[in-house]
Each structure stands twice: as structure tokens, then as C-alpha cells.
């Protein structure tokens, strides 16, 4: 199964695709080239008149659209209908990859995904139809970013008739930067996972006690009302059975009944206020419990990523421990290659250097501009075979400069989640799987 393409390849693919900004209509595209392989697709020629379909979009966009706009539970119900995956035993990653492949291949699977997306985000699609220019479309996208309603706006923008390539690049880049913020928040959530679970259990117990107390108060109130109603009925019947009572006794009895009614109303008001306060507390506790449950789900997702990194690191350590001088299978593709590592920490960088050099590779470290000048990127990167940088130990200026230099010299670069050895080994395992299943070639026999 093919791995998800990295962020660099996605932006590069978008940048190389023909856009409506470079040629205003289908006639301009035809005048640019008469060859079928270089001409715009039929979907691009119709993009000014209707929304784009999922299969019409660039294949680099499918991963971000599927991962952002459809939940894993929805994909687990839909994907097995068009593939041989078992929805009970297939992993979330396998389900996601299968959905991306269905979107790229077209056919009934892509139509089903298109239908599910249109049905779920029909309101956002209608709202974005008011945009009649790329600038208006970007304005709606920025408003969605501020409100946090990302998935509906992302689908409506990507399929909008006015979504030129530059607009899609902006949306794709904004979505990527959000992943940095989510990663930073998840690291703090991992440290609080145990405390959140204990707090969640305590809140559930508290809610159950409050509900029991509320039920007890309601039962007591109903019993009081019934008792007072019975007393009132007895007194009324007694007054009717004794017609010759004196006027003074009747007034005293009426006064007593009024006092009893007032006392009942006061107790009823007290019980009602207690019940309303208990209901409000119960609603607040339930909302807090749902928030904790959502944070727990996000933390578990991050733990799954960390578990994959630890598994890759453990496999590498077991391989080295079996036989002296042996090398991990994930590091075999580094033999004879030059690896440039930008950022990181001194301790982990030393361990990474030992791993790469033991695999027959050359490991070069650049601290990202703390002591080494950022201008040395231009001298170090052209000779590199691969560039790696941890997103948690490099500033954004250095990261943007690094990407520009790598794009200019056609050098592959890969961001990793942390500066740890585990994140580096997980990247090597992912690159090895990508090398064993290369993507389909779009080579043009005439123009290369």
C-alpha cells in the first residue's frame, strides 16, 4: 500500500499543475501546446462553470481532503464496500490509504466519497457559492480559520469553481500549519493523560451521586405535596360535614389552611430551586466530561503515533543487539548517502550520527542558526541526498529558508515530529516502505 506523500511533494505537485491564473480560458491552454499530455484536462476546462469533483482534483490533495473532512468511522463503513479490507480488523491507516487510492482511481469508490462529502457539507458548499472571485473565496476561508470550522470550509473551497491553484495552495499551507499547533498541544496532553482519566472517573461518580440525590429530593417533594393535598381534602370534607360551626371557628380553620398552604408553597419553592441547581450542576459536569473525553481521544491518537516511533526504535535496537556490526533494515537505504540534520538536540544528534554512520552513511548536523550561520544552508544542502529537521527544535524562519533552498536544489526534505531518535527511526521505516512501493509514474514519452 502506498504511503501518504509528504508535505513537500504535495506543494510541489500543486505548484507544477496548470492553473487558471496562467491561462484564462480553454482557448489559451490549447494555444500553449497541441500535445495531449501537456493540454489541460477536461475537468480544468469546465472548472469555471461548475464545482470540481473529487477525482478532478490533483492527486496530492486527496490525502488532506480525506483525512480532514471524513472521520475514520465514516471511512470504515464506506471503504470496505469497494475494497477487500476487513472493517473490523483493518487499521485506521489502512482504511485511510485505501480511501485515498479510491479517490485517485475514480470509479464507484470515488463517487461514493464525493456523495458522502457533498451530503455532509452541503451547507458550507451553499455558503461558499456566494464567492464570485478567488479573493472572495480566500476571505471566506480566513473566516472559517478564525471560527475553527475547518473541514466544511476546506471541502467547499477545494471544489469551488473559483478555486485557482494559488487559492488551493494557501488553504493547503494553512491546514499544514494547524498540524504544528495540534502537535504542540498534544505533547502537553500526554503528560496529563493519567490525571485526566482519574478526573473523568471522579466526575462520573459525582454525577451519579448528584442524580441519586436529585431523585431523592424529587421523591420527598412529591410525598410532601401528596400529604398536604390529603390534609387539605380532609379539612375541606370536615368543613362540609359540620355546617353549624361558628363563624370564628371557620375563620380560624381557613387561616390554618392558608398557613399550611403557604408552608407547602415555601417547601415546594425550596425543593424546586434545589432541583434546578442540581440540574444545572449536572449539565455542567456532563459538558466537562464530554470535553475531557474529546481531549482523551486526541491524546490516544498522539500516543498511537508515539507507539509507532517506539516500535521502529525498538526494532533498530534489537537488530543491533542480535549481532555486532549488524544494521537495521530501515537504515539500509542510507548506505553511501549524505544526511543533513537541521536543528535537534546535542544528545539525540550524537546518537543519530552513530546510527547513520554505522549504516554506511554520512551525517551532517546544522543547528538551524543558533551558532551556525543560516547562510551555510546553500553550501551544505546541494551535496545532500536527504534533509531532515524536527519541527519542535527549529524556528520557523530557518524551516522556511530550508524548504526554499531544498526546492531550489531538488533535495528531498522530511520534517519529523520531535528531535528524538524514535522519530528519526520512524521516518526511515516510512521511507523504506515508500521505496518498496513507489508511486505510479506520470512520465511523458516526448517531453520527459
Commentary on this structure:
The protein is mainly alpha-helical. Residues 1-9 and 15-47 have low confidence and may be disordered. It has helices at residues 7-16, 26-32, 42-45, 59-69, 72-78, 92-105, 107-120, 122-128, 134-147, 150-158, 165-191, 193-241, 247-322, 346-358, 377-380, 396-409, 421-436, and strands spanning 338-342, 362-366, 386-390, 412-416. The relative contact order is 0.08. The protein folds into three domains: 7-184, no CATH class; 193-320; 329-436, Rossmann fold. Strands 2-1-3-4 form a four-stranded parallel beta sheet, sandwiched between helices. Helix 4 (59-69) crosses helix 6 and helix 11 crosses helix 13 (247-322). This is Cell division protein FtsL. Belongs to the UPF0751 family. InterPro entries: UCP020408. Keywords: Cell cycle, Cell division, Coiled coil. Residues 186-220 form a coiled coil.
Provide a brief overview of the structure.
Residues 186-220 form a coiled coil. This is Cell division protein FtsL. This protein is mainly alpha-helical and 448 residues long.
Amino acid at each position: 500500500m502506498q504511503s501518504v506523500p509528504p508535505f513537500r511533494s504535495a506543494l510541489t505537485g500543486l505548484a507544477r499543475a496548470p492553473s487558471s491564473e496562467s491561462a484564462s480560458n480553454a482557448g489559451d491552454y490549447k494555444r500553449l501546446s497541441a500535445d495531449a499530455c501537456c493540454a489541460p484536462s477536461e475537468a480544468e476546462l469546465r472548472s469555471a462553470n461548475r464545482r470540481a469533483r473529487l477525482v478532478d482534483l490533483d492527486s496530492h490533495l486527496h490525502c488532506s481532503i480525506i483525512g480532514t473532512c471524513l472521520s475514520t468511522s465514516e471511512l470504515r463503513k464506506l471503504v470496505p464496500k469497494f475494497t477487500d479490507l476487513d472493517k473490523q480488523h483493518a487499521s485506521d491507516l489502512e482504511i485511510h490509504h485505501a480511501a485515498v487510492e479510491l479517490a485517485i482511481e475514480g470509479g464507484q469508490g470515488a463517487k461514493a466519497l464525493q456523495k458522502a462529502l457533498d451530503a455532509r457539507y452541503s451547507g458550507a458548499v451553499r455558503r461558499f457559492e456566494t464567492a464570485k472571485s478567488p479573493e472572495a473565496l480566500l476571505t471566506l476561508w480566513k473566516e472559517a480559520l478564525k471560527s475553527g470550522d475547518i473541514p466544511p470550509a476546506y471541502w467547499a473551497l477545494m471544489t469551488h469553481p473559483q478555486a485557482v491553484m494559488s487559492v488551493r495552495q494557501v488553504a493547503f499551507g494553512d491546514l499544514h500549519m494547524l498540524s504544528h499547533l495540534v502537535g504542540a498541544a498534544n505533547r502537553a496532553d500526554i503528560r496529563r493523560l493519567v490525571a485526566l482519566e482519574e478526573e473523568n472517573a471522579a466526575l462520573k461518580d459525582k454525577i451519579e451521586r448528584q442524580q441519586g440525590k436529585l431523585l431523592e429530593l424529587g421523591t420527598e417533594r412529591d410525598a410532601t405535596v401528596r400529604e398536604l393535598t390529603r390534609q387539605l381534602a380532609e379539612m375541606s370534607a370536615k368543613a362540609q360535614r359540620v355546617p353549624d360551626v361558628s363563624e370564628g371557628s371557620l375563620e380560624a380553620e381557613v387561616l390554618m389552611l392558608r398557613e399550611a398552604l403557604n408552608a407547602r408553597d415555601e417547601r415546594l419553592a425550596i425543593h424546586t430551586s434545589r432541583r434546578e441547581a442540581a440540574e444545572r450542576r449536572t449539565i455542567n459536569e456532563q459538558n466537562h466530561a464530554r470535553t475531557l473525553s474529546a481531549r482523551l481521544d486526541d491524546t490516544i491518537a498522539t500516543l498511537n503515533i508515539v507507539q509507532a516511533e517506539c516500535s521502529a526504535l525498538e526494532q533498530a535496537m534489537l537488530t543491533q543487539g542480535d549481532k555486532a556490526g549488524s544494521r537495521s533494515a530501515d537504515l539500509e537505504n542510507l548506505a553511501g548517502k549524505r544526511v543533513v540534520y537541521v536543528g535537534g538536540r546535542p544528545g539525540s544528534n550524537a546518537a543519530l550520527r552513530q546510527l547513520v554512520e554505522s549504516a554506511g552513511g554520512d551525517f551532517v548536523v546544522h543547528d538551524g542558526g543558533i551558532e551556525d550561520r543560516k547562510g551555510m544552508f546553500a553550501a551544505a544542502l546541494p551535496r545532500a541526498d536527504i534533509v531532515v529537521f524536527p519541527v519542535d527544535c527549529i524556528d520557523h524562519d530557518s524551516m522556511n529558508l530550508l524548504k526554499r533552498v531544498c526546492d531550489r536544489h531538488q533535495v528531498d526534505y522530511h520534517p519529523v515530529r520531535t528531535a528524538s531518535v524514535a522519530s528519526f527511526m520512524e521516518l526511515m521505516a516510512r521511507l523504506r516502505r515508500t521505496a518498496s512501493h513507489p508511486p505510479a509514474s506520470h512520465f511523458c514519452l516526448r517531453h520527459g
